[in-house]
User: Which sequence fits this backbone?
């Protein structure tokens, strides 16, 4: 047994016991064991994370998928690697992840830890861990009652970077808020040299369109979506930094995958939509930085499976059903673009909840461009969730034909509507707790095998 | 018939989904066969007070609001003031509402000049007022619901409130008022969007504009069954 304080050991053992029990009894992840461990030893994270090369993934959108992509690539490369399960991205959950993997006896072999971190929690993690790499995916307006504004989020992330000048930052170069960060860290940027739709005009309702240095509106050489792209301020010349990793061509975009050229390497990202190209590009960049070879990255991203409400595909009575998690306007708009790639006759379910994890304020649905969907051939519009009627109003005002609406008050009727809808393909766009609850319900009905 | 809706700084004051108010006004007018033009008025644009029938003034993030302030005070203040005094119809939400007043202080105690169009002022508060809200307007005998999220405490002096709070904090958490009305100017902290669950208020705003421009005093009713159900969901929160 290596040198370890009695207090830490007690903390680890207690947490391990609770972890064991909670896995057996509750059959799911929980941050509770981490909370208990931190009570006994507030310093416990630095003890249990000591032998890991840590990669932290934060930012508004894409954290879970990017984390999973990096994890899979490292695993495929033959290195030992651990990761935190979704929903456990704050200090207690992350602590529990490390404790769960902690071996009290025996030699601790070097391993990677790929950890998704909530933006506001980064500073609590970097207090105890010195990561190899930190990545910031993007910054969009999120649930404003929980996170505040994008500049507030950025300030919180910057606080988290203060203690870790040794970490390399791998950043989204297309995110204008992340240029010229004023840190001593090594950094490298990734981004797009081509746009999926030749777009150069930023949407009037997007965030961060005004120079973060001199407040003039940016010009864009290209925009991928929302405010992401190659920007330059015509007044002070602040512009996108040099990209080390760039998407130089988009060869194919389907409802199932995208094929792109990153630098000179062809990559197939087995998840649809521009936002998943960003996730794949971020994973590619990080794995190149830690020295993994192209062919391993290629093989892993090509087989990247979706999970847990991120483009998860199910079969319900012969219908192909896809669940897409939607949390904020930028993510929702991307989900809409992804559904738009599908040329088949589809039905779409819109599930809106207002629990704490969804954001209590549902006003943000008015910032989503549902108007864009009215040109699609949607056979039936299924509406559900706690705030189903707010969703119905939003879609009515967007110009949807209300005669195609089927509004559900509960999951039984929603499931019935899915089974009875005229199309063979159904997309479910659901907020966080709507997704969690409906998955649990479907699990109970036998339509989902693995709940977590 | 045709209405021109002016959206003030749509590229800068555009958070909390308040743009929904414009979409709703447009929808409800068009359902009555009234054509609607939405005219954007941002940095460097002239505020054409004669042209607009309804003006929408939303709130922004602090950074964006700091970009708006000088343009507003240097280029639009007097035109906007004349518009309001001349009974122009205006809907202001959250940050827009605060800017119409004499001043507002930030939570860091920085005093920022307002437009001084309304005799109101806003003080910064340490905690935010966040949550679902219900108010009642006695004069119209109407109940409105929404979601508030603000740290500013607004004091409306002698002005009529938009409603008395039944659930939530309202203007300042002290005097039981929410929002204010001055002539044809309606102010509120409500997001949601405000008009999404308050079709009676949406129609009141449309009607004020139509009355002023065309002398119209009545609107054909619309099917508001979704709006009523959504409002009932919030009303039920006060009972639970």
Assistant:
């Amino acid at each position: 047994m290596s040198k370890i304080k009695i207090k830490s050991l007690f903390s680890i053992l207690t947490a391990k016991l609770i972890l064991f029990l909670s896995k057996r009894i509750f059959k799911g992840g929980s941050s509770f064991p981490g909370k208990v461990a931190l009570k006994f030893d507030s310093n416990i994270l630095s003890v249990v994370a000591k032998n890991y090369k840590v990669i932290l993934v934060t930012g508004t959108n894409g954290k879970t998928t990017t984390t999973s992509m990096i994890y899979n690539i490292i695993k495929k490369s033959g290195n030992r690697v651990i990761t935190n399960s979704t929903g456990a991205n704050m200090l207690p959950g992350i602590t529990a992840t490390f404790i769960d993997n902690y071996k009290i006896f025996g030699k601790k072999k070097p391993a990677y830890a790929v950890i998704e971190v909530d933006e506001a929690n980064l500073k609590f993690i970097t207090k105890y861990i010195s990561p190899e790499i930190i990545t910031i995916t993007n910054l969009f307006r999120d649930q404003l009652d929980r996170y505040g504004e994008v500049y507030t989020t950025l300030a919180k992330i910057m606080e988290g970077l203060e203690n870790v000048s040794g970490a390399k930052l791998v950043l989204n170069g297309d995110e204008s808020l992340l240029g010229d960060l004023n840190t001593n860290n090594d950094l490298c940027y990734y981004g797009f040299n081509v746009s999926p739709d030749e777009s150069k005009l930023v949407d009037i309702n997007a965030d961060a369109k005004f120079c973060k240095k001199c407040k003039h509106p940016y010009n864009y050489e290209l925009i991928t979506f929302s405010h992401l792209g190659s920007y330059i301020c015509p007044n002070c010349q602040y512009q996108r930094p040099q990209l080390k990793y760039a998407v130089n061509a988009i060869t194919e975009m389907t409802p199932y995958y995208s094929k792109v050229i990153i630098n000179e390497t062809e990559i197939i990202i087995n998840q649809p939509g521009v936002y998943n190209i960003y996730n794949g590009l971020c994973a590619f960049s990080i794995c190149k930085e830690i020295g993994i070879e192209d062919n391993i990255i290629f093989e892993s991203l090509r087989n990247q499976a979706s999970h847990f409400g991120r483009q998860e595909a199910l079969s319900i009575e012969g219908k192909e059903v896809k669940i897409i998690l939607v949390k904020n306007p930028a993510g929702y708009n991307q989900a809409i673009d992804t559904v738009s790639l599908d040329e088949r006759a589809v039905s779409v379910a819109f599930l809106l909840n207002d629990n704490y994890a969804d954001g209590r304020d549902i006003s943000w649905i008015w910032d989503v461009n549902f108007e864009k969907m009215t040109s699609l051939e949607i056979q039936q519009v299924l509406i559900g969730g706690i705030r189903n009627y707010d969703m119905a109003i939003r879609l009515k005002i967007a110009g949807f034909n209300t005669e195609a609406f089927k509004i559900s008050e509960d999951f039984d009727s929603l499931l019935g509507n899915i089974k009875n809808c005229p199309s063979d393909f159904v997309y479910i766009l659901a907020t966080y707790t709507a997704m969690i609850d409906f998955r649990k319900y479907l699990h109970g009905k036998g339509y989902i095998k693995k709940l977590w | 018939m045709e209405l021109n809706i002016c959206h003030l700084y749509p590229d800068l004051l555009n958070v909390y989904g308040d743009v929904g108010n414009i979409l709703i006004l447009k929808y409800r007018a068009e359902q009555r066969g009234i054509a609607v033009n939405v005219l954007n008025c941002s940095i460097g644009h002239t505020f054409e007070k004669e042209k607009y029938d309804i003006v929408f003034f939303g709130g922004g993030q602090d950074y964006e609001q700091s970009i708006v302030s000088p343009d507003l005070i240097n280029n639009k203040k007097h035109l906007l003031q004349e518009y309001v005094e001349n009974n122009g119809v205006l809907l202001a939400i959250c940050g827009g509402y605060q800017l119409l007043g004499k001043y507002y202080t930030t939570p860091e105690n920085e005093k920022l000049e307002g437009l001084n169009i309304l005799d109101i002022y806003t003080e910064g508060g340490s905690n935010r007022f966040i949550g679902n809200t219900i108010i009642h307007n006695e004069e119209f005998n109407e109940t409105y619901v929404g979601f508030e999220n603000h740290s500013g405490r607004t004091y409306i002096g002698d002005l009529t409130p938009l409603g008395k709070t039944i659930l939530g904090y309202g203007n300042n958490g002290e005097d039981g008022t929410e929002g204010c009305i001055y002539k044809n100017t309606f102010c509120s902290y409500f997001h949601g969007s405000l008009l999404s669950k308050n079709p009676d208020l949406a129609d009141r705003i449309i009607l004020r504009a139509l009355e002023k421009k065309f002398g119209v005093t009545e609107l054909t009713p619309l099917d508001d069954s979704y709006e009523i159900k959504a409002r009932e969901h919030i009303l039920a929160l006060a009972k639970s």
